[in-house]
Design brief:
The protein is of the alpha+beta class. The chain has helices spanning about 5-20, 65-90, 105-110, 135-150, 150-155, and strands at about 30-35, 40-45, 50-55, 95-105, 120-130. About 10% of the residues are buried.
């Protein structure tokens, strides 16, 4: 896809969102099911069900997906798609491009070993690695825009309000 094809694809969407801003509010939903005796749940994902469980640092055996790994995977996917989209839009040809996301969490927080240790990722680094013939200024603009328009990166940088509810059936 080239820049013109991308613009043609997105033009009617942008126009619709300008005319009816609330139409740009996109609902997303994920659901997990907790079944059986294991410390796992199953999440319906695009390619099919994914069983998630404990990370090996918290007692898992490594055979199940870990939600923290899935978070950094989602960030890598979003950053990669955004990088490609921005490169296409600004006319930068990418060769052998990849996005690596590194994150850390301290298992002591998750396991309640030390109440002073936060639960969750404490740092995340996104590394864009690619070959291109574009100049330094264009490359810097590409990375700046890829970071700006990556939904997952911006969600982590500016966390949304999280509401927790519960429903109990008897």
């Amino acid at each position: 896809m080239d820049a013109n094809a991308l613009r043609d694809l997105q033009r009617p969407l942008k126009q619709m969102y300008r005319e009816a801003p609330m139409s740009a509010r996109v609902p997303l939903r994920a659901e997990s099911r907790v079944v059986g005796d294991g410390i796992t749940c199953t999440v319906e994902t695009w390619p099919g069900p994914t069983r998630a469980g404990l990370h090996m640092a918290t007692g898992g055996d490594g055979s199940d997906a870990c939600s923290a790994d899935m978070l950094v995977e989602a960030l890598a996917a979003c950053a990669g798609v955004t990088l490609r989209s921005v490169a296409t839009a600004i006319g930068v040809k990418l060769l052998d491009a990849r996005v690596v996301v590194d994150g850390h969490f301290d298992a002591r927080g998750t396991l309640g070993v030390d109440p002073e240790i936060p639960v969750g990722l404490t740092d995340v680094t996104i590394t864009f690695s690619f070959e291109t013939d574009a100049g330094e200024e264009k490359v810097n603009r590409l990375v700046e825009l890829a970071e700006r328009y990556c939904v997952v990166a911006q969600t982590l940088r500016n966390p949304p309000t999280v509401t927790v509810r519960h429903e109990v059936s008897h």
